[in-house]
Amino acid sequence: MMKRLGRIWPELISFDNLYSAYLKARKGKQSVASVAEFTLNLESELLTLQQELSEFRYRPGRYRLFTIYERKKRQIAAAPFRDRVVHHAIINLVEPIIDRRFIFDSYACRKGKGVHAAVDRYQQWSRRYPYVLKMDIEQYFPSIDHAILKDKLRHYLKDRYALALIDQIIDTAPAATGRGDVIYFPGDDLFAPIVRSTGLPIGNLTSQFLANLYLDAVDHYIKERLRVHAYIRYVDDLLILGRDKTQLHEIREWIRQRLMEDRLRLHPRKAHIYHTARGIDLFGYQIFPHKRRLRNDNGHAFRRRLRKMAALYRENVLDLKEIHPRVRSWIGHAIHGETEGLRNSLFASTVFSRG
Questions:
Q1: In the chain, N or C: fewer CB atoms in 10 Å?
Q2: Are residues 272 and 300 in the same domain?
Q3: Is the confidence at residue 154, as pLDDT, over 90?
Q4: Contact at 8 Å (CB) between 338 and 292?
């Protein structure tokens, strides 16, 4: 068993680490007012933050909540910029060490991984296996149990000051919305679902990392106890490929039971077995063993966004330096899905001009 990460507090709150965290937190956001204000008084801001941390006076600020609609409605919690600096300072030291314990085929929010690597891996395996068990964890971020998460964290990290800081971030952040029903798990008394604190906010850098950590034991259970070779996880999407449908049904039930130990449930309508040759919807694509296509709703949604950006540009609300990264981001996703005709059509029919 790998040793727990030890005394990291002095390095975590060092000026060099906080400055490195600041550079990462401001990336792509230099024009945002709160970032510009922090930058204007950079040395003073970082020294104040360092002193608050060293004297254990640091308290996270109030989050800004907003809703996005990308395939489904999600509430995003944006932490104040100085808190995002703290989040990066933690991840700078904790993630590189703990990430080594994660399985190879966990693809979300990890260096050298990502959606396209996950799609490539799935497509590679879909040529070898006729079936795929595709599962989704129901209301994953709202369901993450704080007590269980903190206990898991202590299996990786033993610095009590760093643990106290991460605990504080977990406890003070607004939970992701979506969990409205009361769910009982084996061994619960009447009040357990009500008194247990749950949920991580979608939008925090720390939430992404902790969400990976929360399911790491399940990943190892699937790989080592169930001896599954072709397994992929991207956040709360789980994929297992195989040759025997009966065996995949059995594996699904074992995973369902294992998830309940962490107070999680498989989505009842999103845990099915498919023929890989017929293709599946995955990460915005329709994926077949030898080809992939961008989902139709993805193209339609971007067409609407592009028209909206063109309208805002005409009204001088947006400028090109704000538009370019949004367009490049979509193109970077779309080029992996046989979309040359769609891209030509979209950009030929959209004109960016000032009114």
A1: N
A2: no
A3: yes
A4: yes
